[in-house]
Amino acid sequence: MLQAAYYPRDGGNFQGHSKDASRFSVNPVNADDYVVNGTNTQEKDSVVLTAAHTFDHVLDQDNLSSQIGASVWYSTIQNRRSNQDGDRKVYAVFNHTNYKQWNLQLLAGYQNIDNADLEHPNHLTFGAFDSSFNVATKGQIYSAEVSYLFPQEFGDFNQFRPYLNYSAYHKTAQGYQDSQRIIAGLSFNYHKLTVNSEMLIGKHDPYLGDREGLATGGSNDGWNKRLFVSFAYYF
Fold it and tell me: How many alpha carbons lie under 13 Å from residue 227 in its C-beta half-sphere?
């Protein structure tokens, strides 16, 4: 399987309280005033390539399959303050393995962003959900998730899938604290309604108590928790 995509611009900014982060997609933005040493950039001309191959009947097991793949993301970072262009390069390898009702997903990647900012080269301001925060420009990304899909139905409830995910961002810049997040979740369907509930436990995470978590980190060194529940109705 080979996939390619091109995006001439980012997801756009809509109605909200922030300068440039009223969006659902996470993109480089113009930092809000509360962001320390925030940057003002825009991402454009994104090219994404993904190649993957699925192996069925691994080890002659009918219920065991595994997909191995790699992806590349390249885009231009337009710095509105310096009027210079940098770039964003992200490389990743991944594996998805299924055995009966079990699923294992692994990912390892590397991000390298040139933000064309001589004053703040080690971070870039991203934004989403009407808030903005700094992110380290260089580092390794890791993620592992295991889940189990219950085959049984419980009355009108079905597709019960508990899952456990661990992810981390190991930053290259000296003195930057690594970001970590653990997610214990459960998803299920009730008729046309899908419910996803998650307990998030994170350290140096901007969504869990550390505004500089994905950049320098350190404003909150503890493990913080948040319960997240979402509902989706399919017509």
Answer: 3
